[in-house]
Amino acid sequence: MTNEAFARVRIDQLLRDAGWPLIDGRSVRYEYPLDDGGKADYVLFDRLGRALAVLEAKSTSVNLGEGEAQGQRYASQLRVPYIFLSNGEEVWFRDTGQDAHFRPVATVFSQDDLTRRKAAREIRRNPLDIAIDPRIVERLYQTNCIDTLCREIVTGRRKLLVEMATGTGKTRTAAALLKRLFDANWATRALFVVDRNTLGIQAEDAFSEHLPHLPTYRVPRTGRRFQDEKRITIVTLQTLVNEYEKYSSGYFDLIVIDECHRSIYGQWRRALDHFDGIKVGMTATPCVMRDAPDVDEDDRVAIRDTLRFFELDRPTFTYTLPEAIADGHLVPYEIYRAMTARTAATEGFAVARDEIDWQALDEATRAELEELFADQNPLVVDPTALERRFTIPERNRAMVREFRAVLEQGYTGPNGVRRAPDWGKTIVFAVTKRHAETLARLFDEVFADKKPAPMVRYADFVISGMGADDTVDGQAKIKRFKREPFPQILVSVNMLDTGFDCPDVRNLVMARFTHSSILYGDKLNAAQWRKLQAGTFYGNDVDPKMISLASMNLALRGLPDVRILKRNVLTTSFDRQEKAEKGLPLDGYDVILANPPFSGRIDKDRIVDDVKIGATTATELLFVRYMIDNLKEGGRCGVIVPEGVLFGSTGAHKELRRMLMQNNRVEAVLSLPGGVFQPYSGVKTSVLVFTRGRRTDRVMFLHASNDGFKLDANHDQPIEADDLPGLIDAFANRDKHWKDWKTRDSEKPWTYNWWFADAAAIEREDWNLSASRYRPETRETTEHRDPRKLLGELQEEVTAILSDIDALASELRERTA
Questions:
Q1: Of 314, 515, 572, 738, whose CB is crowded by the most CB atoms within 10 A?
Q2: How far apart are the first and last CA of the chain?
Q3: Residue 42 confidence (pLDDT) above 50
Q4: What digits encode the pLDDT tens for the residues 118-141?
Q5: 626: burial class by Cβ within 10 Å (0-12, 13-18, 19+)?
Q6: Which DSSP symbol is given to 536?
Q7: How far is CA 148 from the centre of its chain?
């Protein structure tokens, strides 16, 4: 087969992937004759037989650019506006009425997408001739922004970036831009991308209000198809990245990316690049800050990468915070630095033993702090650990009291001017769910005299970490905060930090460590980021392809310097000097996460002494031993193992489990559904979680029957049933659940999919760690029918069957007589 013939086979597959019917004799025509006697490789037609585009095929050995002239000539003779060039690996596209050059696209456009684009193209108007709807926007900077974007689009610019200060109406501006481009037929289907559900709901409300004539659909979750009849689709990045490959590159004409500075990395970028539509990024990030001397290096990198994605050296349109304040659209702000200085500490701060709430600590943190306080008191701690690893109750109470005092008495600013903050709606940024609940309760108590009734909440909280701690009624709480007098204070974790629209807000309280000049919290500083990039992640593998794949994935996520060694850890070991020379941690790892081979054997003579367990050569046992030995004291491991490791009866199996239980702390065993690793392996597996050191006193067992996907040979179809989020929540609350387990009524059926076994019970079972061994029995009363009645019913059924057989035999005899 020639290179070009092979390319055509692959091009045919590209067309099939885009939904083109290849055998109906009308949609796709090969070697199509032209007026000049030549033949076009492919001509694509709509369902009525009207030509839409030509596709010029080239072999993989020829540069696609060599097909440009041919494609142009064929398109001119056929009077079609669209040209594709492809060799089966790459696809280039050009709209002859708009583009001077070809550009690469991810796929051939589908028949419906080309038909829709061509129809709109024929009635397209200059968007600058369409009036901007004053019912949506009327401020000068908003109309200037829309005019600027439209001028750029008309001239052929396909990537545009809007920098607009928080609170100046980016969503409304986007709505007015969408209306103008739809009215001018420059857009027929648009995508609005957000990075969290809260912003998606907010955008949906805004579009419903301002664009009622444009049907809008917010995709609720992964696995739900986009609705083709809708004009605007709103989707989170997390859903988009799982769905984009189901659609052709031409599915959307316009893509608006909200908070775009957080959407341009790794898998998010691939999803955005898949679609060929014009891309408009919206951000409140002050892009001009890249030149300021005091900007953190992390922020400088984010700004640089945002401009690079949009192929710009400056935003297409900018309206800054100082401009908005000067124009009177935003009010000036003042920063009050709380006397509870630990909030703002950056180099660590001293904490005395008696300041910590020891009851709120999990066992691991309690043990760690006990050991540290044994050597010194007070300790100097990292401010990012506050409220994550431990809490200081008095700090929270002092912060709340200080906020009330500042509202009532005012404060003197650094310039000596006396300030009096406004009473009104307040957002408090907390660290964790526990922290948010605590602060909401404290604010409610301190401001109790301001409540109209005791049962009214002056302060409430909302959580969104896209996990088990999310506030179920979060949207209802946010609506009450925006529309009703109470609550006056809303404590937030990850819900109100970007894009939240509430003009009544008067105060922001940063009750968490604050660093970034772009995003107020939870970003690493430059030193921490360098540590993350070059001194945090390590790996080993024997397969060069796997090393290359892992390195590529890490590099795409901003981690290009991870050390992955080509090494079999079961047959090689390093002493301290060799570790130092290779830049490896000398005392072991803080965390090991692994999914090693589920089975295998290795020559006994090649196994290094560090990982030996008796005389076994089973790699699934040796890998777990390696992980135990390579954790630092107090380090944690999560490893997927075949279930045979947990109940195997050989001496090596039992010795490994004894070592885990007596010399380490086994925290949990999660039994995964059978077939979870299909189509690659059908081995039944579990996740083993343990901490190095100390001794196990009890083990939490968790059982998952479903993981959100159909458990068949392919394991790729999403389903509703998914036990994992609930089990993650159960594991996070294991200390509380242990108390519940100990006080349970053993006579009542156990209905949860988690349970416990203490170390003594496990030792009696030869250290068996199989979850099913310790699952509580469920006692159910079953009513049994009288067997004589059952036998009588069975006899009646048999008699009826025999009678039918006799009738059939009689009929057959009559027909053959």
A1: 515
A2: 66
A3: yes
A4: 999 999 999 999 999 999 999 999
A5: buried
A6: T
A7: 33
Closest Cα partner for 682 from 642, 636, 624?
Answer: 642
Q: Look at phi and psi of residue 116 and say left if phi exceeds 0, alpha if psi is from -120 to 50, else beta.
A: alpha
- Residues 593-609 have pLDDT tens digits of 998 887 888 888 899 98
pLDDT digits (tens, 9 = 90+) for 416-437: 667 888 899 999 988 888 888 8
Backbone angles phi, psi at 699, to 5 degrees: -130, 135
Q: What is the largest CA-CA distance in the chain?
A: 121
Q: Are 563 and 582 in contact (CB under 8 A)?
A: yes
Predicted confidence at residue 365, as pLDDT, reads 62
Rounded to whole angstroms, the Cα distance separating 233 from 780 reads 50
Tell me the pTM.
Answer: 0.57
Q: Among all chains, which residue has been given the structure tokens 């857009």?
A: 187
**For residue range 49-71, what is the model confidence (pLDDT) as tens digits?**
999 999 999 988 888 988 999 99
**Structure confidence at residue 280 (pLDDT):** 95
pLDDT above 70 coverage of the chain, percent: 83
Cβ 44 vs Cβ 51: under 8 Å: yes
- CA 713 distance to own-chain centroid: 26
Which whole number is the average pLDDT over 491-504?
73
| Residues of the chain by 3-state class (helix, strand, coil), percent to 5 | 40, 20, 40
Residue with tokens 């092979």: 6
Four-residue CA torsion sign, 537, 543, 544, 546: negative
Q: Which of 133, 77, 105, 96 lies closest to 18 in space, CA to CA?
A: 105
Location of structure tokens 């999919």: 753
Cα-based distances in Å from 234 to 143, 195, 452, 529, 613: 23, 11, 39, 32, 55
Instruction: Report the pLDDT value the prediction gives residue 18, as an integer from 0 to 100.
Output: 94
Where in 207-262 does DSSP place strands (E)? 216-218, 232-236, 254-258
Cα(455)–Cα(98) distance, rounded to whole angstroms? 63
Q: In sequence order, what DSSP letters do the residues of 398-431 get, joined into one string?
A: HHHHHHHHHHHH-EE-TTS-EE-PPPSEEEEE-S
Strand partners of residue 492: 429, 462
Q: List CB contacts of 582: < 8 A, sequence separation 6 or more.
A: 563, 565, 574
pLDDT tens sequence across 305-326: 677 778 888 889 999 888 888 8
Closest CA to 621 of 669, 671, 688: 688
Torsion of CA 245, 249, 252, 257, to 10 degrees: 70
Residues ≥6 apart with Cβ < 8 Å to 508: 426, 427, 428, 429
- For residue 472, give every residue at least 6 positions away whose Cβ sits within 8 Å of its Cβ, in sequence order, or none: none
